[in-house]
Amino acid sequence: FSLVLSLGATKDMGKMLGGDEEKNPDAGKKEEERQEALRQEEEERKAKYAKMEAEREVMRQGIRDKYGLKKKEEKEAEAQAALEANAEGSLTRAKKAIPPGCGDEEEEEEESILDTVIKYLPGPLQDMFKK
């Protein structure tokens, strides 16, 4: 037993160190067959699980129908539609990351606010601020 083990180990060591590998004409053909068998098994496995998931989904849909439940995606879509509908008739607008007018143009914004305030003052006070 130890003799066979040592022969096999030295043969593998020679391959690892860069020695010539054995040339087997059927090795490529066997490898292709093995790869094809693996691909086929993988396809069969995927088909099996797809079938099982389809059966589960039929059962889930039956439960949803029986108890009046909705799918998660349907709930999210309805919630989004409700938010959009509320936003359309709302007096408040949706918050934005950066309000318009913020940035480098601060002086112009202040002037426009001052002009707006001046418009609502009585005539003599308007004249005082305009000077």
UniProtKB/TrEMBL annotation:
UniProt-annotated location(s): Cytoplasm, Cytosol; Perikaryon; Presynapse
GO molecular function, one term: syntaxin binding
Gene3D superfamilies: Single Helix bin
Biased composition (Basic and acidic residues): 12-55
One Gene Ontology term from the biological process aspect of the record: regulation of neurotransmitter secretion
One GO cellular component term: SNARE complex
Annotated Low complexity bias: 79-88
Protein name: Complexin-1
Originating species: Bucorvus abyssinicus (Northern ground-hornbill)
